[in-house]
Write a structure and sequence with these properties.
Strand order of the largest sheet: 10-9-6-14
CATH superfamily: Cytochrome-c3 Hydrogenase, chain B
CATH topology: Cytochrome-c3 Hydrogenase, chain B
CATH class: Mainly Alpha
Largest sheet: 4 strands, mixed
Number of domains: 1
Helix content: 25-40%
Radius of gyration: 22 Å
Distance between the termini: 32 Å
CATH architecture: Orthogonal Bundle
């Protein structure tokens, strides 16, 4: 029996998932990106300094990652290294955006897959916000017509957290998280100029001057965010993990893992990063080679040649193409299917042993939950790795902000060559992000983006192999063949962003 789960809600963009179910088990899955946008075509022949602005419009959730990747690509093309302040400011802007995104994903997008929202009907406390939710939910249920547009309703049939106190605590923190996310965004905007779509991120650094007042404001906002992460987000995640231990064994992509590295520790991009880059397969991490990335399109709605390397990428839409079922391409690394994202980022760093703080957190938290690091390739593993990332990044941002020197330059002098090319690689919150730029006669001759959800939600490749998200769905046992709450939990553990994937 084929079931269309689309449109899949509580994610960014338009995603449809078609599953084939036999005896309550998913035996096939097809992830469909349902729109075409064409940003690479938009950038053709434009001034290269338009790129870090235009590419931010790919996504309103993670625009800073696109700005950073574009700046990295341009810096390589121009032979440009920012002054120390410039790179630190880029890090502070991007890092705060990661914190916002992790909290948004856990509380507003994923938690409602696990929390029993009806537990608030039994709430007897005095919290004003929870009482508002209680009153609203009771009115919705009594009407007999719960609104599908409401954030908590309707619920899919399935198992949820049984302890009412735990559910009420999570709902309370759901509401609190909205304010904390705002603080993280304010921290980004202090140096970025605005959120979303920063105006101050620029090749060679940042156009914002550094002052003591801005540093103090930034630190205060990040400190509040860090306190929430440690005191509420991490304990809430552990509570969900203990309530659903079976999800350590559900949703494995069974793929290799790829990370491009996040937050350089110095002005040079190759100075080492908080999360190091690497390709992880069978417990071994090897360096990343961008020339090994290709984009296959047998099942994608493009008539351009399949298997082209990034620098030769083409964009020829073919909406009526036979067999094609998605507007997402199928990137492959050295011909292999990979998963990108928080689990990949943490696992690459863990097996590299390059960051003691990450190693310690992985060992400590997996120990508390009585699982091994290999279990991070799972629904709960992806959630836990976001919390690990948030904890490490928040600490880094506080230390990084101390390294700013007021009054010192924040941007390098810029000279754009007539012809040049460059790769810019970073980690968006959802995973490995690559931008490639090539100039000819001082204009953009070629621009190509390979985006996290393009990797994870890719259709079959030329050999018929499913992408990471499709593979994670296949083999899953579902209690209700029509609703498939389990499939929703798997999909949202990847935090797919279709606006990015079909850019």
């Amino acid at each position: 029996m084929k079931i269309n789960l689309g449109p899949v809600t509580r994610l960014e963009g338009h995603l449809s998932v078609i599953t084939t179910v036999e005896d309550n088990r998913i035996i096939d899955a097809r992830c469909q990106g349902e729109m075409f946008r064409g940003f690479e075509a938009i950038l053709k022949d434009r001034d290269p300094l338009d790129a870090q602005q235009i590419t931010q419009r790919i996504c309103g959730v993670c625009p800073y990652a696109h700005a950073i990747a574009s700046c990295y690509a341009q810096e390589q093309a121009y032979g440009l290294t920012p002054p120390p302040n410039g790179r630190i400011l880029q890090n502070l802007i991007q890092g705060a955006n990661h914190l916002y995104d992790y909290l948004l994903h856990f509380y507003q997008l994923a938690a409602l897959d696990f929390v029993d929202v009806t537990a608030v009907l039994e709430y007897r406390g005095a919290d004003a916000e929870l009482l508002k939710v209680k009153s609203w939910l009771r009115a919705e249920l009594d009407s007999g017509r719960p609104s599908a547009a409401a954030p908590f309703l309707p619920r899919l049939p399935g198992s949820y957290i049984r302890e009412a106190d735990t559910s009420i605590t999570l709902l309370k923190h759901y509401l609190e998280a909205l304010g904390v996310q705002q603080k993280a965004n304010q921290a980004s905007a202090l140096f970025g100029g605005r959120f979303p779509h920063a105006t101050a991120i620029f090749p060679g650094g940042c156009t914002r001057a550094v002052t003591v007042d801005l540093i103090v404001q930034y630190q205060a906002l990040i400190q509040e965010t860090r306190d929430f992460i440690r005191d509420k987000y991490l304990p809430d995640l552990l509570a969900v993990a203990r309530a659903f231990p079976e999800y350590w064994k559900i949703g494995a992509s069974k793929a290799a893992h790829l990370s491009f590295g996040l937050l350089p520790r110095g002005p040079a991009q190759d100075a080492g990063r908080l999360f190091g880059p690497g390709f992880l397969k069978d417990g071994k991490v090897t360096p990343v080679d961008y020339t090994q990335i290709t984009e296959e399109v047998r099942y994608a709605k493009y008539s351009s040649p399949s298997g082209l390397p990034v620098k030769d990428g083409q964009l020829q839409p073919a909406p009526g193409k036979p067999e094609a079922y998605s507007w997402i391409k199928a990137p492959r690394y050295n011909g292999q299917v990979v998963e990108v994202g928080p689990a990949a980022r943490v696992l690459v760093e863990f097996y590299s042993r390059g960051n003691p703080a990450i190693t310690s957190l992985v060992e400590s938290l997996t120990g508390k939950l009585d699982v091994d690091p290999a279990s991070l390739d799972s629904v709960l593993g992806r959630h836990l790795c976001r919390a690990i990332s948030a904890t490490v990044i928040a600490d880094f941002l506080m230390a990084e902000s101390e390294r700013l020197v007021p009054g010192q330059p924040t941007i390098a002098e810029l000279h754009i060559p007539a012809e040049a090319e460059g790769y810019g690689a970073t980690e968006a919150s959802r995973g490995a992000l690559l931008h490639y730029i090539r100039l000819k006669n001082y204009r953009i001759d070629k621009y190509e983006c390979v985006v996290p959800t393009t990797w994870n939600a890719s259709p079959r490749d030329d050999q018929g192999r499913p992408g990471a998200m499709e593979a994670a769905l296949i083999g899953t046992k579902v209690a209700d063949q029509t609703a498939q709450l389990e499939a929703g939990r798997i999909v949202r553990s990847f935090d797919p962003c279709l606006a990015c994937a079909i850019h």
